[in-house]
Fold this protein.
Amino acid sequence: MTENTDIFNSREYAVSRRAYTLECMFEYFVSLLVADAFIAKLLKYFGASDALCGVVSSFISLSFLFQIFSVLVMGRIRNTKKTAVIFHTAAQFLFSCLYLIPFLPFDNGVRRAVFIICILLAYFGNYFVTSLIYKWGNSFVDPHKRASFSSAKEMVSLFSGMFVSIGLGFAIDKLDESGDVTKGFLLSSVCMFIFCAGDLICLLCVKKERKEEKIQKPPKLSEIMKNTLGNRNYVHTVVLKCLWWGAMYTTVGFLGTYKQEELFYTLGQIQIINIAGVACRFAVSKLFGRFSDKHGFIRGIQLALTVAAVSFAANIFTAPDTRWLIIVFVILYNVSQAGTWQNMINITYAYVDVKYFVQAAALKDCIAGVFGFLCALGSGRLLSLIQNNGNSIFGITVYAQQAQSAVSLLFVTAALIYAEITLSHKKTMLQ
């Protein structure tokens, strides 16, 4: 243990941790511009419906299906760094091209098709190596401080991301006043290319994976299945993530258009609200990390899910006359993310041998991603039904996003109960 501690305290490990932290920051900047109001604005320019905007915004969950390829080929990869750099960089630059689609000399129908193809290809390249990069970056982190490192890394992304989102939000609003919204799209694309370049430089600065963790012999598929889906505790973590992602993708992807059209917020105002949420997440991130290191990942998840339940409960009552409640939702939802996002990944270390981490993480994201996307499709259908009925249910005025939030609340409640029954008292591993 002393030798390992000396390794983790070495300069080259410290440099790799910093480079990995900054890489996550640049990746986060790109993700901000392919989510929520930014991507909804682009889709609306193509003439997409509210339901389609919500479903496309939820493509991220379906894209985790691509991680199934990780299970099949990761055991044969000899150069982690080279593979990660190639696929991740290609994906990030492809994301940057999304905002150039409005300049293509085609009608909106063709543009929508090109957009969907490009975003799916970008997500494929990104999530094909997500688990690989996560394991590679965390191989330089002391296992006793993994949750704390994750929270600190997240804080860097959140803090810097606040300036990016508010700056671009108001800049795009200002450009829109000129009457040509494509200027805002061009600015978004240029910024994303800069972020992608920074992402690439940071990946190149991370040293190759630890020598003792280099792959010697690829595990057989049967061996992988036995140590993942054949592991009852691991399966419990998969079900838990499915319930949480069901809650997220039933509602969150559909709020981008809701904020702009029904609640009448401008893009700049939306970014101020988002920043308030991110600032609160930033403030509690370290606390969640320490709490999870001390009491375990599952307790951290349960605490976060409790906050999420309150956020969706508040959103049930969010309507044009009570539009301020969307601020309550955004703040509480972001706070909950401080305890769910990293812990849902780190909990894999607690129940699965690190030798199978990449495959286990990929399988979990794949299964939860498909479930989340199916929930988004069903939620999109619910939205269309309510809107076609004049935003009413049984004669009572109800907006679709309010009904979606009620369903999400049920998912979160189920996740809390499931976590307590299946995982709260299980023994964990330290790896």
Notes: The chain has a mean pLDDT of 87. The beta strands are 392-393, 396-397. The radius of gyration is 21 Å. The longest strand covers residues 392-393.
